[in-house]
Amino acid sequence: MKSLRLILTNKKYLAPAFVFTSLNVWFGVWAIYIPTVKERLQIDKADLGFAIFFLSFGVFAMFPLASKIINKLGVGKATWIAVVIGSIVSILPLAAPNYYLLCASLFLFGLSQGLTDIAMNTLVTEIEKKDQQNFMSAAHGFFSLGGIIVGLTSFLIPIFNSPVTHMLLMTGLIFLVNFSFKNQYLNIKAQAQQSEGFNIKLFKPLFLLGIICFLSMGSEGAIVDWSALYLQEITLAPEAFIGAGFLAFSFAMTLGRFLGDGVSQKVGSVNVIAIGSIIAIAGFLCVLTENTLLSIFGFLLSGLGFSVMVPELFRIGGKVKDVDSAQGVAFIAGTGYSGFLVGPVLLGYLAEAYTLKTSFWVLLFCAVFVLLLTGVLKRKK
């Protein structure tokens, strides 16, 4: 909790942490209105899926550009510009009058999401290096907190009665808070590295981190997308309990990230990833019992395990020797987002071909593989 206390008592650390919250608020408000957009534009699920592809495409398109933008502007200015752009373009998908403009606005939304994600993670990495303070995990906890905020405001949907009004209100509040904090990080620049550029030999240590991040975020995405259906179809949970798995997972993710920095300082980043994978393994074993209550507890354990893994991967990736921090973070973010977006789709095909339980057996094996990879990381320290 030391890192959480650090953030809450010092604007220097609260400012970048709140950018994490902002990113998930923008995305969360869009996500809860996806059914409304589908109905308003009278499109089917296939068309909606293709439109959402443009959001992912925008995120991926930003990854090779983000490090150049960050290094040219400075990480502090790049973060603030990303906040400004995000505050504007987040409104566009909900206001799109037709399907084609929806696709175009989602692409722009994805670009802003990608820039914000890489800029804010690079910013935290730089502050950590300069101040010798760990708060990356707690900052990711503030990202999870953004989802909780959106979830709470979703009860006000009947009052808003308009997706655009809801987004405008949330975006306006988010922008004002960020505006008041921007001077805390505006002039921060990433430390210059004597780097050879992006080549396989130089980035060899990042590929192992990338594999772990792909598997970790892929598992996160799968739980987010499939936990409710698993409880419904496999454990035959009562209707009131169907969303309990996702709630338990989200709560544990938030709590774990607030506690993760203190654990990381004591045992080290690689050990944190190993411990997280062990907890996730225990969680999947509980999920696979097919007992509703044990499965919900398993989702909680899985959330706790995965909560600390991705922030540590960003932390390690931003500190690899002779690798520019923005490039390191961009590489980890790119592989992680690939897993988050592709993982649930692949597991969906598995569930269709076999069973949903088979998909969760695959997630268990992925967690075991991550544990094995941490042993390789230790040897290649």
Distinctive features:
381 residues; mainly alpha; Growth Hormone, Chain: A; 2 domains; 17 helices; globular
Distance between the termini: 27 Å
CATH homologous superfamily label of the largest domain: MFS general substrate transporter like domains
Number of helices: 17
Write the CATH architecture name of the largest domain.
Up-down Bundle
Output mean pLDDT: 85
Q: Which CATH class of the largest domain applies here?
A: Mainly Alpha
Counted up, domains total 2
Explain this structure.
- This protein has 381 residues and is mainly alpha-helical.
- It is built from 17 helices and no strands.
- It has helices at residues 2-9, 11-32, 34-41, 45-73, 75-89, 92-95, 99-131, 136-153, 157-160, 163-181, 204-233, 244-267, 269-287, 292-307, 309-317, 325-353, 356-379.
- Helix 11 (204-233) runs parallel beside helix 16 and helix 12 (244-267) packs antiparallel against helix 13 (269-287).
- The longest helix has 33 residues, at 99-131.
- The chain is globular, with a radius of gyration of 20 Å.
- The two termini are 27 Å apart.
- Residues 194-198 have low confidence and may be disordered.
